[in-house]
Amino acid sequence: MDLQSLAIILQGALSPNPSERKAAEDSLNQYQYAPQHLVRLLQIIVEGNCDMAVRQVASISFKNFIAKNWAPHDPGEQSKILPDDKEVVRQNILNFIAQVPPLLRAQLGECLKTIIHADYPEQWPTLLHWVKHNLQDQQVYGALFVLRILSRKYEFKSDEERIPVHHIVEETFPHLLNIFNRLVQIVNPSIEVADLIKLICKIFWSSIYLEVPKQLFDPNVFNAWMILFLNILERPVPVEGQPADPELRKSWGWWKVKKWTVHILNRLYTRFGDVKLQNPDNKAFAQMFQKNYAGKILECHLNLLNVIRTGGYLPDRVINLILQYLSNSIPKSNMYSQLQPKLDVVLFEIIFPLMCFSDNDQRLWDEDPHEYVRKGYDIIEDLYSPRTAAMDFVSELVRKRGKDNLQKFLLFIVEVFKRYDEAAAEYKPYRQKDGALLAIGALCDKLKQTEPYKSELEHMLVQHVFPEFSSPVGHLRAKAAWVAGQYAHINFSDPNNFRRALHSVVAGMRDLELPVRVDSVFALRSFVEACNDLGEIRPILPQLLDEFFKLMNEVENEDLVFTLETIVDKFGEEMAPYALGLCQNLAAAFWKCMNTAEADEEGDDPGALAAVGCLRAISTILESVSRLPHLFVHIEPTLLPIMCRMLTTDGQEVFEEVLEIVSYMTFFSPTISLEMWSLWPLMMEALADWAIDFFPNILVPLDNYISRSTAHFLTCKDPDYQQSLWNMISSVMGDKNLEDSDIEPAPKLIQVVFQNCRGQVDHWVEPYLRITVERLRRAEKPYLKCLLIEVVADALYYNASLTLNILQKLNVATEVFNLWFQMLLQTKKSGARANFKREHDKKVCCLGLTSLLPLPADQLPGEALERVFKSTLDLLVAYKDQLAEAAKEEEEEGEDDDDMGNSQTDDEDDDANSDKDMGVDEDGDEAESDKLQKLAARARAFRPTESDDEDSDDDFSDDEELQSPIDDVDPFVFFVDTIKALQASDPLRFQNLTQTLDFRYQALANGVAQHAEQRRIEIEKEKVAKATEAAVAAS
Fold it and tell me: Per the database record, which ranges form the Importin N-terminal domain (predicted)?
């Protein structure tokens, strides 16, 4: 297609007529892979005589095509762009980058970024030469623009990946320094000079972000750069040309230069200028920086801050960065001694005013309260906020230099309170009071543990905070709620004070001003957590929930949902009457948040986070009513649309949270409905397509389907769930691109099938064993090997004769058993077992090996029988010891800490969630508590292990994550019953076996037999106790 035809099509893409626009877009798609199409698009972009709108469409099309097609996403994929076209683009794009208007330059810059990331240095070795040549020529802006993109490629790279940076710095930094020098000396510089200096700063920033290039270790070279940065830092920003509009002003070129300069000096100071943080190689650099520059920078920063003290302008980001530098200077003695003489001025005339409510705050509060709330709870805003940096400075000051400053600062705050109390209403310093309350809230951790202040906190709240709940000024009512929330956990000597604060916060949820309502909800969370007597909240719970959802309709914020989760968590089953309503409200809020997030193209809308919060809160509600299965039937229709939609690609951002809800619904519902079964294909599709990272999460509901609705799994043919499961497992286990840790849930699922479908899936035993053995041969991680061997063990327990015949038919029986016995014998340096470390692993192996014992001699010869018998005895003893150790730890844990939830061990063994996590709930209903904890622990227990550490001595047991028929099988009783059956059916074989045993194994066998009888008695007692409990519950 010639240039004119292409320009006409691009013009058509701008048409207001939808059909013309669609035709143009179809034509572009049709010709996009044609030779030279990309080159012609570039020609139109740089053609000055062409209509600007057409050039812009061309630049967007050019950018999108390059982003999608320049570098193939799959390693073996062929590039869709001809090498000749790529070469023409590379040769020409550089020359035009500086010539096109800024709007088009931004698009070409994105293209360059893609090309450089893919091609430099291998396919584009001449790029650096072009940059170096043009830094000495007339095309300085273009060269700097390209060098900025090139240096940014390596900004976060370390070690070997960073090697090209040294060459780039060596070739370009001497020229950059010369250009920088010339620019700094220009009298009355234009805004274009600022743009050039800003690019140099950004190049320098990217080059030193992770590591100082060795060229800068030369004191003379580094000093030359520092002289220029200090010059920029000290010199006033030109007055002429500054925009009057505050938003435009902070983005003005010269203020940007100031910001990047401060940014660079902060980075050098915090990352490379601290002697304590440096490795020996860089220590000399750190000492040189501290000695020659750190103090000078501090002096310049203090001078800059002085501007705002006298009413001058500094951008928020610059103030924030300077205060960060000051905060980092507090712990360093030499820097603190330099700061100290000016500290009072900094603290009381700069820092404190920044903490006070400002004109901008008032304007936002009045004009856009939603934006006021968003900014107040946005973590990203905090990173750039002068107020946050001021609070951090005060916190660091009292933490590191509290002896000199805490009392002094608090006396200042008390003075503010006093002036406020004494002033007439129309003269009260409301904004200063707001700042003083913010300071008190920010210092709560320090004040709560420091006498004499600790003892005075309740009095301080009553005297200075509580009165503001009824302040005529909205921002003080909001701040009172926030401060009260910060101190909700202190010990109130007068319970009425706690009650008063709680009721004031609840009343704040009905305030006319939105920010007050929001701050009150957040404060409520702290009061609910701190509340020992829920009777305070119980009577107002319905109205509280009502107010809560009204607010959720107004504001999308995940912190709001945290408060709801806290309430649900605290009230537990008492939430039952509200569970359906809560789920309906949360589901409605979820859809609203998702719609907002989808409409927000920037992707930074709080709606997305709030949507995740809604789902998490739904999970919390389901957990709280888990012992009331009838409720799940009523809740299901509300949640089903969410689960159906969000288990597709639409739900990638919330997939984990949705799977948790599916897990609860399939575990606690009385039965699994056909509507819930309709989710199975969606999960299988996601797993096959994009969700392999979520396999451990998907495993949980799949296990629930098979174990809790076994008949439907086995009998349904449309869809055929057995075939579907096989297709997925065989695909995953056969995929050579997947790591061992990626596929761990697959063997666990095979075990679920064998354990739950005994005698009903004979036709699946051979295919599952075949893929298991094939994967076992490729497995490297010990944990995966254990899981695959356990599939064999479960198959033996399923049907030993069938399984052994299949293994022999596949010619792998000897190979598999040799590996199994070898793994059973392997130990770590400490002497502990290297494999089958969890209780569950040992139990499965015991049941599998025991199942071999009754086989006739033609299937299991005498020597094999002896080997199996001895290995099983050793394993049973290890299993018994592990159970005893876990019981002992549980007992100790119970004595040390009544909180069952805090007992998780910091263990790095495979899936090591110790049995000591399992406990009795407050009502003593152990079975239900276990059931709930098992589900809650599943996600943890199914997580891939990271522990193949030879030196790890820990061998903790886990929460038995699979609730399956083998839970009721005692391996000791099973072993003894199997041996008794062998003795009865083949006395001679039994006699031959026992006669070959040495004294040790005879003793072990007797010990196991005695333990089995003891277990029989215990099991009977447990059955009687459960029956009694059930009878009591029924009555």
Answer: 24-99
